[in-house]
Amino acid sequence: MDLSRVAAKALHNLQKVPDSGKYWTEVHVERLDALTRELGDDLDGIMEVATEDELVEITQLRDLLNALVNDMPEITKDCPIGTCGRKFKLQADLDKHMERRHG
C-alpha cells in the first residue's frame, strides 16, 4: 500500500512540472489510464470488505488516485490547419471535422 501511495504521489507531482505535456505521450497516458482504472476497481472492491482501520488507509490512497486521474493530461488530436485551432479526443472526430470543414 505504501509503495502504491508513493508511486501515485510521484506521478501526480510529475504532472505539475512545467511543460509536462511534452513528456506525456499518448501511449503513456493510455497506460496510466488503464493502470489507474484497474487500481481504482481493485480498491473499490477491497473497500467493500475492509475493516475500519484498513478503510482509512485505502480511502487515502483512493483519494490520491482520484487526484491523479483528474489531473492526467488529455491527449488531443489537433486540426492540422494552422488557423483552425480545433482539438478532438478521437481521431475519427478529427477525420469528420477535416471532411466537413476543410474538404
Structure description:
By secondary structure, the chain is mainly alpha-helical. The protein has two domains: 71 residues; 29 residues. Helix content is 66%, strand content 4%. It has four helices and two strands, in the order H-H-H-E-E-H. A two-stranded antiparallel ribbon has the order 1-2. Helix 1 packs parallel to helix 3 and helix 2 packs antiparallel against helix 3. The longest helix has 22 residues. It is elongated. The N and C termini lie far apart (53 Å). The model has no long low-confidence stretch (mean pLDDT 83).
Mean pLDDT: 83
Structural class: mainly alpha
Shape: elongated
Main sheet record = 2 strands, antiparallel
Total DSSP helices: 4
Classify the oligomer: single chain
β-strand number: 2
Radius of gyration: 18 Å
Order of helices and strands: HHHEEH
